[in-house]
Amino acid sequence: MPLSATGGPAPCRATVPLQETRSDSASPRSCEPTAAEAGAWADVLVRRRLLHAAVLAPTGQWLVQDRHDGPVRVLMGPADVLALAATIQHHTRTLRPETR
Question: Which of 5, 35, 67, 72 has its CA 20 to 30 A from that of 21?
Fold first, then answer.
């Protein structure tokens, strides 16, 4: 086995070009979103001021508020938080003027 400059084994390199894999399913995820993942997204949305508040309730539901004076919405779980984040992200990207 060839050695690298640091004396360890040389890194392996692919000899065949990588091929794109295509999933026919609607969701490319292999597992359900977790509360931690939803919490991270909720934190980002609030810090970026895209949401006024997002709170995880003891029941596993999420309470979200778009504006400080707006209604509180109940999201049933982490998948709904990720769907909301995707919707907000899509909305902000489509409203942004093209810079290229």
Answer: 35
